[in-house]
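Exam review. A common question shows you a sequence with its structure tokens and asks you to describe the fold in words. Practice with the pair below. Do the first one on your own.
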Amino acid sequence: MGTGERSARNRANVGERLWSAAEVSNSIHYHLMDCDKLKKPIKETHSMDGMRRKPQPTDTYKVNIDASFLASSNKGGWGYIARDRDGIFLDGGAGNITRAMSVLHAEAMAALHGLQRAAQLGMPRIILETDAANLGRALTSDDMDLSPEGGIFKIIRSFMESNFVSCNV
């Protein structure tokens, strides 16, 4: 995520104007186009302490997701980017959410769309990456199944179990 998106999120966290679904969609589209221009694969990644991380197996793919939510209209936007083990862009998508209950619901919709596309593309092993810690917890346990968004969490977990050899969040 670029510094412009971080600044927008920080401004939103202090109560300033949130991005509209169209603005999020446009930003995702811009970044997808930018990723498409990249020719060099990312050969290795480094953690914070400079140690090399072990590369993922060849049939493991990373799906990054994000979403936006505007409480005043209950609308939002979702997006995902799928990459291979070398960080090469493979697919991406974005869309609008016409009715959302919460930001967590919007994040769950982004996860569902990204996972559905990964399954369509035949990706057997997935690493689903989100910046929403609550979503990560909801998709890896049943702790939040009684929440208003609990139904979609159950649907996503069932989808992950039936469509992938492994799916780590």
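Now try the second one, then compare your answer with the model answer below.
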Amino acid sequence: MAGLLLLCAAAGLLLAVVGAIPPPEEAARMARFVLHSCDWGALATLSAQEGLRGRPFANIFSLSDGPPGPRGGSGVPYMYLTDMEISVQDLEINSNASLTVSLAQTPYCRKHRYDPQNPLCAHIIFVGSIVKVNDSEAVVAKKALFSRHPEMETWPKDHNWFFAKFNITNIWVLDYFGGLKIVTPEEYYSVKP
């Protein structure tokens, strides 16, 4: 019973966070909002694998920019990675990647009956590179990730997990009709979510 109450409280918190969607004219704030609302994203790399070398390769990764809740997070997409993962092997050759997150994974789009491809079901495309974080930032990344993905703490230690972040260089926001909006990293990090 306690577990069910906790699950209901968490769902209510998510609905409260997702319910306060920024207006379309605030693209930087929308980008921060969508990232903070999402627990995972599609990471695209250039494959280094035999038979796929140089071709785009997308994979799903858990992520977090901070603990869930209305505070808005840091805006930095953190990930918990291992060299055993195929996309991480690609990143060892070429760290450039793109990361897409969408409100389609939240109750917002289902509630409004928006198809994931509908621009009103906002999605954000980040371009940049994956970098391993230093020890002091690893503390922040660990708190951000393990607060949303507690299972990570139990993943096999012999897989040599490490904390990384998506170093953002370009941001595109699709949250309304009329095409993509470009947001600079400076605008993105300076806005209050």
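Model answer, second protein: The longest strand covers residues 162-174. The chain has one domain: 27-190. Full marks require stating both points clearly.
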